[in-house]
Amino acid sequence: MADSGTPNDGPPLETTQQGQLGDVEEDREHMVGMSDQLRRRLELVSPLVDNRVMAKIIDMLENEVATAKIVELEADAVKIQKCMDELAVTTKGFMDKIAELEAEAA
After folding, report:
1. Where is this region: Disordered (predicted)?
2. pLDDT value, residue 22
């Protein structure tokens, strides 16, 4: 009953995902830190900056926050994929057991 042709013949799933999750967390922390730095600098120079420049800076900050959210969603997608992979393995195990029991009953 061994399955020789698995669809995921790459490195072990946990190793790959842990590496990706670590990278995602580092990226997110870096982006949030940069955003905080920019906000502090903006507060210092805001009296000297006209409204158009201020609007562009705010747009840049909002884009950074949006990018950080995308990174978080990608991390969630990795977690969901892991759950789906585990469910597929469990389902295959159930289907194999059912086929085995049907063969014994026949």
Report:
1. 1-33
2. 61
* Range 56-62, long-range pairs (CB < 8 A, 24+ positions): 61/35
Among candidate residues 49, 75, 47, the one with its CA nearest the CA of residue 60: 49
pLDDT, tens only, 50-92: 777 778 878 888 888 888 889 899 999 999 999 999 999 999 9
Cα–Cα nearest to 64, from 39, 32, 26: 32
Q: What angle do helix axes 13-45 and 51-105 make, rounded to 10 degrees?
A: 170
- Structural domain includes residue 5: no
pTM beyond 0.70: no
In a domain, 57, yes or no: yes
- Euclidean distance between CA atoms 58 and 94, whole angstroms: 54
Full domain range(s) for residue 45: 13-105
